[in-house]
Amino acid sequence: MKIARFDHQGQLGYGILDEETNELVKLYGDPLYVGFETTEERISVDEVQILAPFIPRSKVIAFGRNYAAHAAEHGTTVPEDPMMFLKPNTSVIGPDAPIILPPQSEQVEHEVELAVVIGHIARNVPAEDASKVIFGYTVSNDVTARDLQRSDGQWSRAKGFDSFCPTGPFIETDFDPSEGAVLCRVNGELRQEGDLNLMERGVGELIEYASSVFTLLPGDILLTGTPAGVGPLNHGDVVECEIEGLGVLRNPVIGSKK
């Protein structure tokens, strides 16, 4: 099922998407943290603002260079061990919220990625048991200030600006992450085109590695890397990230507010 978090006339809620009617079946409770029950109430998707499915209470864990072609376009190779870094939860925004270009950077780029939402407290999870700790999957954009990534020597600033982790539009709880088209378009122009089956390390292996370092908590988001074709974002652009079966994440881009 596809779960959305939404704002309807100032009231926040969760709903299960009925794709036949384009309606949300409203839920009582919190699907991730406390559980939920369905209600009798339905509301059209067109009448609500879809928000980021969840704002992590803890962390966004991301992996770089997990597609060989993307590593190659930056003149490097897939590392022997997974390349892991963190993004703050304040970087997460939802569909249609603006990506804000910071004044500190002159080269901000898009990176479409599969996002894994953790559903249980987990530590030292074997790859073969990873599915037991996953709540679902969604689309994300690991927005990156490429010039700062190169100059800083570490990635916290380049990856961590507010609005640099668009996520959504839905969490799909029944999804096979082993294959599926991964696309990014800017102003309708196809920039990135790959497939989940091109990931060097699959979701299970990434969860095993991350959980050997951090305790994973419900609501943590794990980003799995981006295919080749990353490119610049400029004021006025509209960027669309899409993963087959998960939907389209669309965000406008605006200049910095100094």
UniProtKB/TrEMBL annotation:
Q: Does the keyword Lyase apply?
A: no
Parts forming coiled coils: none
Q: Fumarylacetoacetase-like C-terminal domain spans which residues?
A: 59-253
Its keywords, alphabetically, are: Hydrolase, Metal-binding
- Span of domain Rv2993c-like N-terminal: 1-53
* Superkingdom: Bacteria
Q: Member of which family? A: Belongs to the FAH family.
**Name assigned to this protein:** Fumarylacetoacetate hydrolase family protein
Organism this protein belongs to = Pseudoclavibacter albus
